[in-house]
Amino acid sequence: MKLVKPQPDRFLPRGVVGGAEVSAASVGATSIYMSVIRVEPGARSRPHYHAQCESACYMLSGEMVVSWGDGLEEQLTVRPGDMLFVPPHETHVLYNPHPSAPAEYVVARNAATEDSVEVPWAG
After folding, report:
1. Cα–Cα distances in angstroms (integers) from residue 24 to residues 47, 55, 73, 79, in the given order
2. Any idea what the Cα angle at residue 90 is, between residues 86 and 93, rounded to 5°?
3. Largest CA distance in the chain
4. Which homologous superfamily does the CATH classification assign to the domain defined by 10-122?
5. Model confidence at 39: pLDDT above 90
6. Distance between CA 115 and CA 33 in Å, rounded?
7. Region at 27 (left for phi over 0; alpha for psi -120 to 50; beta for the rest)
8. Which DSSP letter does residue 120 get?
9. CA 92 – CA 30 distance, rounded (Å)
10. Which end of the chain has a smaller Cβ tally under 10 Å, C or N?
11. Rounded distance, CA 22 to CA 112, Å?
């Protein structure tokens, strides 16, 4: 067993902020990744997908607009208490429309790493 305590903020390559996580790097996990992620007010992630895993998100606070699809034409809003499933290879962008409040969510994946691939042509 390993206890994971809150960690300092770190900016993830896809443009969101992470802190403590359960992963291969932090605890030696082999098939799970879990983290609390924050999207700053007015911030937008870079277009990305997760190549080898499914993701499940639980919205803690704030609001996030998620765009996906071939041209990012599909859109939905995730609010506190909502859960979101993201299949592998689904290019998506996260946007926090609030001018002053961050959006925070818990993400869990069936992979032990971040597994994020940026898609520059999708933005």
Report:
1. 24, 16, 34, 29
2. 85
3. 43
4. Jelly Rolls (2.60.120.10)
5. yes
6. 9
7. alpha
8. G
9. 25
10. N
11. 8
Model confidence over 80-105: pLDDT tens digits? Answer: 999 999 999 999 999 999 999 999 99
> Backbone dihedral region of 63: left (phi > 0), alpha (psi from -120 to 50 degrees) or beta?
beta
**14: which 2 tokens?**
């896809």
Which residue type is seen at 98? H
How many CB atoms are closer than 10 A to CB 45?
Answer: 23
51, 54, 34: which is closest to 89 by C-alpha?
A: 51
Backbone angles phi, psi at 41, to 5 degrees: -55, 130
Candidates 71, 14, 70, 19; CA nearest to 43 is 14
- pLDDT tens column, 12-32: 777 788 888 999 989 999 999
Which DSSP symbol is given to 89?
Answer: T
23 close to 33: Cβ distance less than 8 angstroms: yes
- How many Å separate Cα 44 from the centre of its chain? 11
Find tokens 């606070």 and name the residue: 61
Tally of CB atoms within 10 A around 49 = 20
